[in-house]
Write a structure and sequence with these properties.
Blueprint lengths: L1 H10 L12 E5 L2 E4 L2 E8 L9 H17 L5 E10 L2 H11 L5 H15 L2 E13 L3 H14 L8 H19 L6 E2 L2 H10 L18 H5 L5 E5 L2 E5 L5 E12 L20 E2 L15 E2 L3 E8 L2 H24 L7 H19 L4 E12 L3 H16 L4 E4 L4 H7 L13 E4 H5 L16 E5 L6 E3 L5 H4 L4 E5 L6 H14 L3 E6 L5 H9 L4 E5 L10 H4 L8 H12 L2 H5 L3 H14 L4 H9 L4 H14 L5 H4 L13 E6 L17 H22 L8 E5 L3 H4 L2 H17 L1 E7 L2 H5 L2 H4 L2 E6 L5 H10 L6 H9 L12 E5 L5 E6 L4 H6 L20 H7 L2
Parallel strand pairs: 18-23, 18-24, 19-21, 19-22, 20-21, 22-23
Antiparallel strand pairs: 1-2, 2-3, 3-5, 3-6, 4-5, 4-12, 7-8, 8-9, 9-13, 9-14, 10-11, 12-13, 13-15, 16-17, 16-26, 24-25, 25-26
Helix pairs in contact: 3-4, 9-10, 15-16, 18-20, 18-24, 20-21, 21-22, 24-26, 29-30
Protein name: ATP/GTP-binding protein
Organism: Streptomyces hiroshimensis
Length: 853
């Protein structure tokens, strides 16, 4: 038998090229069972490596190397990287559980259409491990032909065997779960999809039975497709015999002796970066052609050698090199080839390292599957792009000639190694350096889609402003960056999603450019209102009205404090605060209190000081800043504690700094502080009301540096941030000054998500790096500097670095789902908010594409 195997290996036919295709007998969660053996299959998680620090990368790569050497040693493994097209229809189904307010169906449809345009694939990492040889495999091979001919073949799997295999798979899975790959058993539905997709089966995937298994006829229908092999590709045929796809299997023939990571050494992670330019079709315009991703699918069968076997192999190579060196020294030339000496030294060093550390050898057989649904010429263009890309980093790749069938079968789950000729032996550290699980990943697992990744791997990005409380996590989100980079528009998109989730959204718009949020909300049926300063909105911020329910008692102290802030200093010095409190108490006792009634009571008093106080406050109530909190209402109150969006615009306010003495405050500053006092008191009362604990609440503060400049504002922000989880209240802030934000320890500690847009000064960039959990240094500064511009150095709106609740960071593009929405949310000075009667601005398609570039 050994002689026959040796002859087969010499002739290049080792590896059982002629073996029949795998015959599946059962699928279950985490298990693929064939007639001859059983494999455990796991779905691997991705690590966010694009912006990971060098120390963190080294540590994680060491963990992966250790997992390969300890956990997978001796197993036959099969790593597959697949690309799943994004099914936008799934988001429509998910939206039924996410959204509940307004015309969320139209909002969802808008996002679904946009996702269909983007066509973002999702990377799937799957690892198969052969865990058992089936006892009846020899019998099955021998009797299969007779049974099939007689029609009595059986593919049943006993429950006892299923239980044993499940225990083996779960035991190994618990070990792989603690690795950087965070492995989880692949669901039976995922395994069925993986098997069926290789033959482009158009039929619906079968559902598992009551025991969670897919067997019998349901399993057979997954592999009823037809595949025709050709010298340099295979063709996939549909049920009518027509070609529906072309695939070519490429082999990786040679690797450089040394490869660096980060860099060319990440040969498995980098498959997402390969692009090609398709040929121009008859109906295409020259401007329509752009580079498209190839998305080759690696299939790597590998086996980690036990350290004993690896050391034995290394010692044989070292001894052979030593004998060659000694033989050369005996000849007259006395010179030894440099390669022989280097080999001997390398093997000696490697043997020493393996005895000291968790290092061993690994044998792998990497293949790349390139597919096209367009044409054979398109397939060959894709193959050329893959070969050229890897050639640029010193890796030899070629299309396997005359062995496409064998290699295609070899790539199937449950098959075996068929073509062992191109085997590579490397250390587990070198294989871990391929970073097959690396790339870009950030955001929530579920929730509204806000945009897409722009890093080394594609995918959608999700973020739910109101999801922190449900997870028992912090609830603060920060948008940070210089003006004009799209952070306020990004915030408004997220607030819209919160509105559709049935949240109460209060936005304190100090700059006066968020009217588009109301326009967009009303366009899609949300309860949205715009409130501005001025006599037409008199009384909307009256604390007697705002502090309702269980918060009503607070008005008895908050209203006098507010009027005392607005009061001229000379009246305060004469003791005017006492008559104000007395008038407040009397108005409350009469019922139906209001601040304007307090002022009228003061004006009608026979006491001179009290009357002067009332007259002064009355005159101030006629101003644009005074009317909202102490003017006589001209209509019903607009702000109510119910689901909806309220944008309170107070542009032009001037708040004093903490160092300014109160005696030096101007009239404008006094009224600004008093108006903000109303809004902050309302925000705190809304968050703390027990009867509103079940209501999702969002308090958004654009240009938050306006509040951080005052003690009251800083206290408010830190209070909402700290109690947000318990009170189901999310805080959203927007600022151009990360340095001042970083000084609010109570706020920074509660940040669950940070969106970092472009900044240009080193000090601000370093402060941003801290908030994004990125290492300080020239590289990070350069990254933050470049995040807001494209390759032509033009502004790239909505492009930022996102740090999620897991402290992972990646580059993200906020995506506006339509041109109309971009017009509605326009924050430029020329924008005219639809809520005040103006229509959306006109904007060309090119402007929209630029914003989403």
């Amino acid at each position: 038998m050994k002689i026959m195997k040796g002859i087969a290996r010499f002739l290049g036919v080792d590896g059982d090229r002629s073996a029949p295709p795998p015959r599946y007998v059962g699928l279950a969660d985490g298990l693929v069972i064939t007639e001859t053996h059983a494999e455990a299959w796991y779905l691997l998680g991705s690590s966010n490596t694009d912006l990971m620090s060098e120390a963190a990368r080294d540590a994680e790569q060491d963990q992966a190397s250790s997992a390969l050497a300890r956990t997978l040693a001796g197993y036959d493994c099969h790593l597959k990287i697949l690309w799943s097209p994004l099914n936008a229809e799934d988001y429509r189904t998910e939206a039924e559980k996410l959204f509940s307010a307004g015309d969320y169906g139209a909002w969802t449809e808008l996002r679904v259409r946009r996702l269909e345009e983007l066509e973002l694939p999702t990377r799937m990492l799957l690892l198969g491990v052969r865990i058992s040889e089936r006892a009846n495999q020899a019998k099955a091979r021998g009797s299969r032909g007779v049974q099939d001919a007689l029609g009595i073949g059986s593919t049943s799997v006993s429950q006892k065997e299923i239980a044993r295999l499940d225990a083996l798979a779960r035991r190994l899975g618990r070990q792989l779960e603690t690795t950087p790959w965070k492995a989880q058993p692949a669901t039976v539905e995922l395994l069925a999809w993986m098997i069926a997709r290789e033959q482009r089966r158009g039929t619906p995937l079968p559902a598992p039975d009551d025991q969670g298994m897919i067997t019998g006829a349901k399993l057979a229908q997954l592999t009823r497709g037809r595949v025709l092999p050709y010298p340099d590709h295979v063709r996939v045929l549909d049920q009518r015999g027509e070609t529906v796809g072309w695939s070519a299997i490429l082999t990786m023939d040679g690797f450089p002796e040394e490869m660096e990571t980060p860099g060319p050494g990440e040969w498995l992670r980098s498959v997402a970066e390969i692009t090609y330019v398709p040929e121009l079709m008859d109906d295409d315009e020259p401007g329509d052609i752009s580079a498209l991703p190839v998305n080759p699918e690696p299939s790597v069968r590998f086996k980690v050698l036990h350290k004993r076997d690896a050391l034995k192999q290394i010692d044989e190579i070292r001894r052979l090199a030593k004998e060659q060196r000694q033989s050369a020294a005996k000849h007259s030339a006395g010179e030894t080839a440099q390669e022989i000496e280097e080999t001997e030294d390398t093997m000696t060093s490697l043997s020493r390292d393996m005895k000291r550390e968790d290092v061993t050898l690994l044998e792998d057989h990497p293949r790349l599957i390139v597919s096209s649904d367009v044409s054979l010429e398109d397939l060959r263009s894709r193959c050329d792009a893959v070969i050229g890309y890897y050639g640029g980093v010193g890796i030899e790749v070629s299309v396997a000639a005359e062995e496409q069938r064998e290699l295609w079968l070899e790539a199937q789950p449950g098959d075996m190694l068929r073509v062992p000729d191109l085997m590579h032996t490397r250390t587990v550290g070198a294989f871990a350096g391929s970073w097959f699980w690396g790339g870009a990943a950030v955001g929530d697992d579920t929730g509204p889609v806000i945009g897409y990744l722009t890093g080394s791997t594609p995918g959608v990005v999700r973020n739910d402003l109101t999801g922190g409380s449900e997870r028992g996590d912090a609830t603060t989100t920060a948008f940070i960056g210089r003006s004009g980079r799209g952070k306020t528009t990004a915030m408004m998109l997220s607030l819209l999603d919160s509105g559709f989730r049935g949240s109460f959204v209060l936005a304190l718009d100090f700059k006066g450019d968020m009217g588009g949020l109301v326009s967009a909300g009303q366009r899609y049926g949300l309860n949205a209102h715009l409130i501005e300063t001025g006599s037409q909105f008199a009384g909307v911020a009256d604390l007697f009205t705002l502090l309702s329910g269980e918060s009503a008692e607070r008005a008895q102290t908050e209203v006098p404090a507010q009027l005392g802030i607005a009061l001229p200093q000379h009246l305060r010095m004469r003791g005017a605060e006492t008559p104000i409190q007395s008038a407040v108490n009397e108005i409350i006792a009469e019922g139906d209190p209001a601040t304007w009634k307090v002022i009228e009571r003061l004006r009608q008093s026979p006491d001179e000081l009290t009357r002067e106080t009332g007259d002064a406050l009355y005159e101030l109530s006629l101003t644009g800043l005074g009317a909202p909190f102490m003017g006589r209402p001209v209509g019903a109150s607009l702000i109510t504690p119910s689901p909806g969006i309220w944008v309170v615009q107070v542009p032009g306010i001037t708040l004093p700094s903490p160092d300014d003495a109160r005696d030096d405050w101007s009239v404008h500053q006094r009224l600004s502080v008093a108006l903000v006092h109303s809004l902050l008191a309302y925000g705190i009362s809304m968050a703390g009301r027990k009867d509103l604990r079940g209501l999702r609440k969002v308090v958004a503060v654009p240009e938050v540096h306006v509040l951080t400049a005052t003690r009251e504002g800083s206290s408010f922000l830190q209070y909402i941030a700290r109690v947000g989880r318990a009170l189901h209240t999310a805080l959203v802030v927007d600022t151009q000054d990360p340095e001042s934000l970083a000084s609010l320890t109570g706020l920074v500690e509660q940040m669950t998500t940070v969106f970092g847009f472009q900044l240009t000064t080193p000090e601000q960039q370093d402060a941003m790096a801290d908030l994004l959990d990125l290492p300080k240094g020239a590289h990070t500064r350069q990254l933050i500097q470049a995040i807001g511009v494209d390759v032509t150095q033009e502004i790239r709106h909505g492009h930022c670095i996102m740090r999620d609740r897991r402290f992972s960071s990646a580059t993200v593009q906020f995506d506006v789902p339509s041109v109309e929405m971009l017009q509605l949310l326009n924050t430029t000075p020329k924008a005219d908010a639809g809520a005040t009667g103006g229509g959306p601005l006109s904007m060309s398609k090119s402007a929209y594409e630029e914003a989403n570039a």
